[in-house]
Predict the structure.
Amino acid sequence: MAEYLQKNKIFNPEGDDSIANRTIIKGNVTGLFNLGDVKYNWAKQMYQVMIGNFWVPEKVSGLQDDAIVYKQGLSPAEQRAYRGIISFLTFLDSLQTVNLPHFSDYITSSEVNLILSIQSYQEAIHSQSYTTILETVVDAKEREEIYYFWRDDKHLLKRNKFIGDIYQRFLDEPNDKNFFAGIIGNFLLESLYFYNGFAFFDTLAYNSKMIATGRMINYIRRDELTHVAIFANILKEIKKEFPEMWDEKLINEMFAEAVKQEIDWTHHILGNDIPGISKDSTVKYTKYLANTRLAMLNMPPLYPDEMSNPYKHLEAMADNNSEKTNFFESTVVNYTQSSSMKGTWDF
Ligand SMILES: [Fe+2]
Ligand SMILES: [Fe+2]
């Protein structure tokens, strides 16, 4: 049996917090948050960006209008997609809120633990934002059906189980391989699983439908983009400090499976019935996204034929809303509720 990683002790007087001996995992920390001594500068800068991104769903106005549009302006296919996508996104955020501390237990850098705590809190806010949307837009019975859609929809159940199982495997057997797979799972969840759903809401907003929901999604996405960067950076630190754990074959395998599942699910829930989104554009977009995420890990594209975004018009809309985060220039720009501080996330 492979050796298990050691969970951080709550308080470890024999620990050593010095930068010289600090590692992203497998260190021997005291448990004290000495945030003045920073080794991972990207984490410190991301902390500022994440705090600057503070927002609350209750402040997003216009959901009453969405309630009218939902009933009178959406086709049955759009209504079904709206419900199904929110169900999946709610699941992802629930899982992250609860699960991130399990991974944080093995991270031996207080500056990285700090931002993972903020991430957990943001995921809880995202869950609350879906509740805020649903409380206004649909009635109580429909709301319950959306939360528990996976009970009736075998595609969603299979999808949710797949993700849950990756995390559960690490909890049950916290060895190097399961940890690394869990971190890739986090990266895929944050960087790939949300985005066909986001494209759906962007497409509605582009067609002047469900504008308030679209606004809420913009806030959520701004947070999610910082989460993508956190896990990309954790992965890159592991590669640097523990190269024996780095497994590109596993990354590619998990990416290929994630792309397949994301396409299958999106085809199932959107079909070919949403104006502006086709089965073909879903395939292209998902593969394009996977390539950009692999590039963040300095890995070659898995799908060299899909190097451009089929939803360019939506990208432009996001630019106009000034909420877009540019991974490659690594900057964040403001989006209303609070002023976000610019920072460099890559190291
Ligand atoms: Fe989230
Ligand atoms: Fe997230």
Observations:
- Confidence is low (pLDDT under 50) at residues 320-336, 339-343.
- The pocket of fe (ii) ion (ligand 1) is lined by residues 93, 96, 123, 126, 220, 224 (CB under 6 Å).
- The domain at 47-53+61-328 is CATH 1.10.620.20 (Ribonucleotide Reductase, subunit A).
